[in-house]
Amino acid sequence: MSRALDFLVKARPQAMGAYFQFLKDNGSRLEPKTRALISVITKVAVQTEAGLVQYARRAYDAGASGEEILDALLMAFPALGLHRVVWAVDVLIEHGFEGFGDTEEETPAPTPPGETLDVCALSALPERQAVKRTCDGRPLLLWREGERVRAYKAYCSHQGMELMASGLKGEHVVCAQHGWRFDLPEGRCARGERWSLTELPVSLRQGRVSVTWTD
Ligand code: FES
């Protein structure tokens, strides 16, 4: 639950309780996959990336395929319009959901743990500005100061949501799910050191930055 919903539940328990019960009752005659697909469409209608990712995951968990998610999106086309359908497909591709991506070549499996990712030239990284890159299916956050580069797994330490490029704000990245904030120079979470991002080993050779993806 988001911080805002947490707050509303505490501030208006009766109203919010009735609202959640209303949602639950109205979905009780539908099977989980249908419920999740409808929720996917509602998140596309209001264009909330974190919500779309969350409900797309639920749809997959409930047994939906990428084809079925695409069917649902295209069935809702008259209401969503082309720009929202394109936006949703972009998000699903960006997050690597099965069935979304290159239609001609198979998406390679992510680099196994322990293997080294060739990320980019050092000169391609801006100074003191957080950057997100996805290399061989692995999402990374990068921070450069001169010849020193730090790299982190781009996953939130709260509930594991991927940290999106849209959440980068100067030295920080903010998780789209519940708003946790991390500083990139150190990888620390504003909620405490124990929630720090997972840092990865970086090496520099001949002007290129490599990162080792660890477990
Ligand atoms: S998953 Fe909750 S703040 Fe990131």
What is the count of β-strands?
A: 10
| Overall 3D form | globular
Going by CATH, the architecture of the largest domain would be 3-layer Sandwich
Q: Cofactors and ligands present?
A: FE2/S2 (inorganic) cluster
- Low-confidence segments, ≥5 residues, pLDDT <50? none
- Mean pLDDT equals 87
Kindly report how far apart the N and C termini lie. Answer: 28 Å
Class computed from helices, strands and strand pairing: alpha+beta
Share of helix among residues? Answer: 25-40%
Q: What is the name of the CATH topology of the largest domain?
A: Rieske Iron-sulfur Protein
The value of Rg in angstroms is 20 Å
Question: Which strands sit side by side, in order, in the main sheet?
Answer: 2-3-4-8
Fourth-level CATH superfamily of the largest domain = Rieske [2Fe-2S] iron-sulphur domain
Percent strand equals 15-25%
When the domains are counted, the total is: 2
Q: Could you give a short account of the major beta sheet?
A: 4 strands, antiparallel
Number of helical segments?
A: 6
